[in-house]
Amino acid sequence: MPATLTALLCLGLCLSQRISTQKRMYDTPTLSVHPGPTVFSGEYVTFYCRLETATSTFFLLKEGRSSHIQNRYGNTQAEFPVGPVTTGHKGTYRCFGSYNNHAWSFPSEPVELLVADLVLRDHTAQNLLRIGLSFLVLVALAWFLAEDWLSRKRTRGRAKSFALGVQEKAENTTL
């Protein structure tokens, strides 16, 4: 009986070790994207895949494109830089961890990447406002320049008449 008990004890320890190892092997990674899930065409994004337990390889998969799997080597986190993004990059992404070539983690929760085209807006109203303000500034500048020119002309005219008046007085006093 003690041999059977020892055998069962060893079997139980081995199975519990294997079960705890398998439990750690099938964690679910978390996937995040920075600067955020909505970006404009031409920007750069980075996907971060993270697992609590160490793994050897991370995989980023875009749903609907099984031929486009990216892999990175890492311990608990891997970065997947993408960009400049186009509308072809929009879609749903998931990541996986591989502990060896045979054991994979569960897939992460999906992350939806939305890529907006840069829309050329009609800036007619803003441009008309800028042109109108520029015109008002030019009119004010022309007003100040004309006022200065007329002021100088009047001052020269007064100085000239004053000089003529002084000259006439001098001639009258000498006669």
From TrEMBL:
A single GO cellular-component term on record: plasma membrane
The keyword Lyase belongs to this UniProt entry's keyword annotation: no
Membrane topology classification: Single-pass type I membrane protein
Signal sequence, renumbered to the chain: 1-16
Main location (coarse class): membrane
Subcellular location: Cell membrane
Residue spans crossing the bilayer: 128-146
Start and end residues of each Immunoglobulin-like beta-sandwich domain: 36-101
Annotated InterPro entries: Ig-like_dom_sf, Ig-like_fold, Ig-like_Receptors_ImmuneReg, Immunoglobulin_dom
A Pfam family reported for this protein in Swiss-Prot or TrEMBL: ig
Keyword vocabulary terms for this entry: Cell membrane, Disulfide bond, Glycoprotein, Immunoglobulin domain, Membrane, Receptor, Repeat, Signal, Transmembrane, Transmembrane helix
Family under the similarity heading: Belongs to the natural cytotoxicity receptor (NCR) family.
PANTHER family: MHC CLASS I NK CELL RECEPTOR, NATURAL CYTOTOXICITY TRIGGERING RECEPTOR 1
Protein name as it appears in the record: Natural cytotoxicity triggering receptor 1 isoform d
Top-level taxonomy: Eukaryota, Metazoa, Chordata, Craniata, Vertebrata
